[in-house]
Predict the 3D structure of the following.
Amino acid sequence: MFTAPGRRGRERQPVHAVTRLMQLQSAAQAIPFHTNGMRVGLLGGSFNPPHAAHRAISLFAIKRLKLDRVWWLLTPGNPLKDNGRLHGLAERVDAALDVADDPRIDVSCLEAVIGTRYTVDTIIHLRRRVSGVHFVWIMGADNLAQFHRWQNWRRIAAEVPIAVIDRPPQSFRALAAPAAQALARYRLPENQAARLADQHAPAWAFLTGLKLDMSSTGLRNPDGSWKAKK
Ligand SMILES: Nc1ncnc2c1ncn2[C@@H]1O[C@H](COP(=O)(O)OP(=O)(O)OP(=O)(O)O)[C@@H](O)[C@H]1O
Ligand SMILES: O=C(O)c1ccc[n+]([C@@H]2O[C@H](COP(=O)([O-])O)[C@@H](O)[C@H]2O)c1
């Protein structure tokens, strides 16, 4: 028997082993459930470890962008990070399923399955394999600040609308960074963010209203192990 954390303030709920096995299998199957016309946010990340802000920004994006679901795409290793102390994918999937704790959030190992660490490959793969779904790439402002260093970032921006979530103290730097400047004319006013998933790329929006200082870095010990949950 596994346990999954309940929403804040609730008791931890038991999760039957068969349910957990099904969740793990569907993560391994890589492309989560979808139907024609669905609006899906893609939150790529290291999730080392997953934390409450991942869940909070996913639910925030569902609300503000009028999404049906968010897929957490667990990277085999961010190409711009030192991945020497990155925990194994299975351990991160297991922890992500615990933290996500919402039927609208799916956890996926798509990038490991297709054998890439590059977002551009992931987006092109999804565009080819999944039709009729409106995707939005979601990232924190720290990632917008270095988006110009991602492989083929202009192609990513040309393929999928992007929602950037405020993440102090990165926000000012992010909006002044090369990618934000280059894409400035494609930025939607925040009060039109609900239309983002319907837009042809390039299109992006910067979402304020949620400021969370939680990070995976803060949840790791100096040796890379994850701090025990309180
Ligand atoms: N507190 C937060 N506010 C806004 N976005 C966040 C926050 N935490 C994570 N994100 C975003 O979620 C995605 C996945 O993040 P990631 O798994 O790298 O967690 P992290 O806390 O940023 O990790 P680390 O501290 O190791 O860099 C990224 O786009 C990141 O910008
Ligand atoms: O494609 C790239 O070049 C690239 C460079 C840096 C980061 N990314 C992706 O950005 C997402 C966020 O990464 P992270 O480590 O900040 O959680 C994750 O999906 C990474 O694979 C992608």
About this structure: The beta strands are 2-4, 13-15, 39-45, 69-74, 105-108, 134-140, 162-165, 204-207. Residues 1-11 have pLDDT under 50 and may be disordered. Residues 188 and 220 are 36 Å apart (CA to CA).
